[in-house]
Amino acid sequence: MKILTAAQTRQLDQATLREQHLLSPELMERAATAFVKWFSSRFAPAEAGEILLLCGPGNNGGDGLAAARLLQRAGYRLRVALLPTEKQSADWQHNRHMLPNSVPVVEIGPARLPKIDPSQLVIDALFGTGLSRPLAGLAAKVVQHLNQAQARVVAIDLPSGLFADAPQPVDSAVVRAQHTVSFGLPKLAFLLPQNAELVGEWQVMDIGLSANFIAEAVTPWHYTDAATVAGQLPPRPKFSHKGTFGHALLLAGSRGKMGAAVLSAGACLRSGVGLLTAHIPGCGYDIFQISQPEAMCLTDKQADFISELPELKPYQAVAIGPGLGQQPASLAVLRQLLKAAAKPLDKTGQPLPLVIDADALNLLGSHRALLKQLPENTVLTPHPKEFERLTEPARDDYHRLELLRDFATEHRCLVVLKGAYTCLATPTGELHFNSTGNAGMATGGSGDVLTGVLLALRAHAQLPAFEAVRLGVYAHGRAGDLAAALTGMAGLVAGDIVRHLGPALAEV
Ligand SMILES: NC(=O)C1=CN([C@@H]2O[C@H](COP(=O)(O)OP(=O)(O)OC[C@H]3O[C@@H](n4cnc5c(N)ncnc54)[C@H](OP(=O)(O)O)[C@@H]3O)[C@@H](O)[C@H]2O)[C@@H](O)CC1
Ligand SMILES: Nc1ncnc2c1ncn2[C@@H]1O[C@H](COP(=O)(O)OP(=O)(O)O)[C@@H](O)[C@H]1O
Ligand SMILES: [K+]
């Protein structure tokens, strides 16, 4: 699914009107109907009490007025407060005329702010994608008044004052919504941690916008949902054997962190790899062999950390990093690996697929000259702190996306910036946000599991690099969701994600 800018969203509305021979009030009616469908599925009229609808001057306000009419017809009680302006949009005026007189309407003024009860439901239809500058004056005052009231707020399309696709100055007035009900496609703003408390829980409703326009729209931003990855995992042919699905090598673990190696290995095995060999420090031999009997195991001459790189010929992909530690000898192994992987090992002429995680990323961050040696399409899986060590501190989440895009294009690699909407950056500068996963996965070892999943999928001969990583990130989050449905979020541990990888991959 694509994510468009606010400007493209307006063009999309226009393209839809042209293509479907609609009048613009008809499209607004679709939006309002979709909003009311969501609203009535969440709040029964009796539970909603008297709703306050705050209405701005543009089409977002127009959506609000149309929704007010439909809500009243559906048995809800509401009053409307209008933000005064010199001009209102044509569709706003149309819906103002359509609003029955039985809905009380008042005009807001500097000395006439609407009374808002903390227990009240408020619908925010002040501003949407047409916001052209940060809110000031009376509009800002209304938003601050609303936020102070601590009422439950449902925003139409966007919390008012929030830009759909760009940061706003700190301290600017933005509605804090508990729910945001948007139309057509998700907005970039919904996916960034800095906006979480403004957007709340969000939902996108289908209003039949032009599929042709969306297909042709050029955007770096994408959203990976179930439809994106459906059918992407190649089926296992009847006569396949363990050699068909690749032999993966995992370099992981150190004293006290053998669990990372065990979790990664388990995830790799549960993600369909044909064979897995782990190279681990001597101290981990019993731990590893007992907990992962399906994997083969090579032990390092060092007891507590990894200091040797095994012969790479047998392997179709290598992952390094989970629980590795940052010993100089392990850094030397990473150096050798980058050098060896860059030289094509087989007749395809492709470099050996690598997945680099955790301490291997920290080693790259403290020896940045090594970044120049990353083979093309290497997968890096930093969380925001690890990413900062590879680049620089970001001013905000939007700046972090810029740094991410620049990093992936400069080093021609696939960077998985982990988080609530994990963002995969590609060598061509695309950013793919993942839709699956939950806060239960914010627990030690979840990232090690992801490394194992990606290792298995990069070892799969029939999966191109980008598709493998996008699919792996999606399946990892989906496994977390399936696990949390059983354990609850607080009770979820990384091993639960491993146990649900099978069903998650079976779904796609
Ligand atoms: N087109 C369609 O058919 C559909 C559209 N849809 C709906 O339309 C919404 C977009 O509508 P929109 O483009 O009219 O913009 P909207 O967000 O209402 O605000 C624009 C108004 O606010 C003003 N304004 C801006 N910034 C301001 C500020 N800081 N402080 C004060 N004023 C400010 C601006 O004035 P100006 O910038 O010209 O000064 C203008 O008057 C979209 O979010 C969705 O809800 C759906 O119904 C689907 C079908
Ligand atoms: N709030 C969240 N919502 C969705 N996924 C999350 C959330 N928090 C963490 N995750 C996922 O869990 C994993 C955590 O990785 P990481 O921070 O490396 O953990 P660890 O180092 O303990 O293994 C990432 O894949 C991340 O996307
Ligand atoms: K709004």
TrEMBL record:
Binding site for (6S)-NADPHX: 59-63, 128-134, 157, 260, 323, 383, 448
Domain of life: Bacteria
Family indicated by similarity: Belongs to the NnrE/AIBP family.
The protein's name: Bifunctional NAD(P)H-hydrate repair enzyme
Cofactor(s) the protein requires to work: Mg(2+); K(+)
Binding site for K(+): N60, D124, S160
Function recorded in the entry: Bifunctional enzyme that catalyzes the epimerization of the S- and R-forms of NAD(P)HX and the dehydration of the S-form of NAD(P)HX at the expense of ADP, which is converted to AMP. This allows the repair of both epimers of NAD(P)HX, a damaged form of NAD(P)H that is a result of enzymatic or heat-dependent hydration.
The EC number(s) this enzyme carries: 4.2.1.136, 5.1.99.6
Domain (YjeF N-terminal) ranges: 9-215
Keyword Hydrolase among record annotations: no
Residues reported to bind AMP: K418, G419, A420, Y421, T422, G447
Short name of any one Pfam family annotated for the protein: YjeF_N
Assembly, per entry: Homotetramer.
Swiss-Prot/TrEMBL catalytic activity: (6S)-NADHX + ADP = AMP + phosphate + NADH + H(+); (6R)-NADHX = (6S)-NADHX; (6R)-NADPHX = (6S)-NADPHX; (6S)-NADPHX + ADP = AMP + phosphate + NADPH + H(+)
GO biological process annotation, one example: metabolite repair
Record CDD domains: YXKO-related
Organism from which the protein derives: Hymenobacter cyanobacteriorum
SUPFAM superfamilies: Ribokinase-like, YjeF N-terminal domain-like
